Amino acid sequence: MYKITKEFHFSASHQLLGLGEDHPCSRFHGHNYVVEVELASDELNTIGFVRDYNELKSLKAYIDDTLDHRHLNDVLGDDCVTAERLAKHLFDWCKVEWPETMAVRVRETPKTCAEYRPLVYVPVEARR
Ligand SMILES: Nc1nc2c(c(=O)[nH]1)N=C([C@H](O)[C@H](O)COP(=O)(O)OP(=O)(O)OP(=O)(O)O)CN2
Ligand SMILES: [Zn+2]
């Protein structure tokens, strides 16, 4: 299997409501988000690509237009935009664009990372 990744950056604010007032993340705050999308395929195209990195620019356009310098609670219509939920949101967008999408990772800080990767269902008959 071949795997490629590409990284995207944006800045946005959010607030994790429901955590309790003493939790720092319940306050309005922001992050310099790092998003990494992962695509995989058993086969390469005639050029030798899983997919041209250049094509992934449309994710940059989506991020710039809808997430960058915005309040994520408003954009996603969610009062608790965790990194996990943002990873799922971006995974769903990427999967429609590129069926080879395997996972999306979101970093809010250099020390944290949340990933959305669907479980692969293996039928009982195929498990032997
Ligand atoms: N599982 C998750 N936990 C937390 C999330 C999240 O999205 N998923 N988000 C937050 C906050 O929004 C923010 O990311 C702060 O995280 P934290 O690790 O507390 O960041 P700090 O820089 O303050 O960490 P220090 O350990 O103090 O350096 C919280 N949890
Ligand atoms: Zn945060």
TrEMBL record:
Pfam families (UniProt xref): PTPS (PF01242)
SUPFAM superfamilies, A to Z: Tetrahydrobiopterin biosynthesis enzymes-like
Cofactor(s) in the UniProt record: Zn(2+)
Annotated active site: C25 (proton acceptor), H69 (charge relay system), E108 (charge relay system)
Reactions this protein catalyses: 7,8-dihydroneopterin 3'-triphosphate + H2O = 6-carboxy-5,6,7,8-tetrahydropterin + triphosphate + acetaldehyde + 2 H(+)
UniProt-listed InterPro entries: 6-PTP_synth/QueD, 6-PTP_synth/QueD_sf
Gene Ontology MF terms in the entry: 6-carboxytetrahydropterin synthase activity; metal ion binding
Recorded metabolic or biological pathway in which this protein acts: Purine metabolism; 7-cyano-7-deazaguanine biosynthesis
Cofactor note: Binds 1 zinc ion per subunit.
PANTHER family with a match to the protein in the record: 6-PYRUVOYL TETRAHYDROBIOPTERIN SYNTHASE, PYRUVOYL TETRAHYDROBIOPTERIN SYNTHASE
Protein family membership: Belongs to the PTPS family. QueD subfamily.
Protein name from the UniProt record: 6-carboxy-5,6,7,8-tetrahydropterin synthase
Origin species: Roseibium album
